[in-house]
Write a structure and sequence with these properties.
250 residues, alpha/beta, seven-stranded mixed β-sheet
């Protein structure tokens, strides 16, 4: 009996695939449960997966093992030596991820993709340019995932900074919330990325233009009203700004 995608998902594990890869790959222990959560629905599917950062090639084999033979797996690296992995059935592109012209040429050749994982150089410029250029070229229901986002807090990468990747990600959150009907007329709104998930060291952007362009407006189910009074300010409890700031731990 042929296996269904659900059957494959039950058995698939990025950690197992990582450990089974014949070539070196280096990942953090906290990443695998995130990979499983984000990417599990693509196991056994015919889709296009792009990873920036080929390095020793280990993760290419990891993803092939995890997703299965239907997945189109593309690697991107600045080092032209990475093209050796084409002999193993992978598509490899060489170029700078912080060069918008590279992305223009890449998507002209490849077309739109379903998932892009950035495990490249981890500089703010590389991460931000990648997201800015790639998001419009990801299919609805797809994902744009950036790992090693902890570099936003590292002095060696120029962090903390108002121009860090994490600050860029927060700005996307602003654009999403500006879709609220009271704000949309006076603010720029995010109309490609539908939602953002923050994990330790990983940020995942979900692309869904239908949801991102859904009109935000109040609704009523027209049920019977009990003329309930709004009591939000009636509890008599006052919290000072200094006490409220104690909740801001980090």
């Amino acid at each position: 009996m042929a296996q269904t995608p659900d059957d494959l998902t039950d058995k698939a594990s990025t950690l197992k695939s990582y450990q089974a890869s014949p070539y070196l790959s280096i990942k953090h222990t906290t990443y695998f449960h995130v990979y499983d959560r984000l990417f599990g629905r693509f196991v056994g599917q015919d889709f296009t997966f792009v990873e920036i950062g080929v390095f020793n090639g280990g993760s290419l084999f990891m993803w092939r093992d995890f997703f299965g033979p239907k997945a189109r797996i593309i690697g991107i690296d600045l080092n032209p030596v990475a093209r050796k992995w084409e002999d193993h059935g992978f598509e490899i592109f060489t170029g700078s991820q912080q060069n918008p012209q590279f992305w223009k040429t890449f998507f002209e050749k490849v077309g739109t993709v379903d998932v892009l994982l950035d495990d490249g150089g981890h500089t703010f410029e590389q991460q931000i340019v990648t997201c800015h250029c790639a998001a419009p070229n990801i299919n609805d229901g797809g994902l744009l995932v950036v790992e090693d986002a902890h570099t936003s807090y590292m002095e060696s990468f120029g962090g903390p900074s108002p121009l860090s990747f994490i600050e860029y990600s927060k700005n996307i959150v602003d654009g999403i919330n500006h879709r609220f009907s009271a704000f949309e007329k006076n603010h720029k709104t995010e109309r490609v990325i539908s939602s953002v998930q923050f994990f330790e060291s990983i940020v995942a952007f979900e692309v869904d233009r239908r949801l991102a362009n859904m009109r935000s407006a109040p609704t009523s189910n027209r049920g019977e009203s009990m003329d309930a009074k709004d009591f939000r300010y009636e509890d008599g409890i006052t919290i000072s700004a200094s006490n409220l700031m104690k909740a801001f731990k980090y």
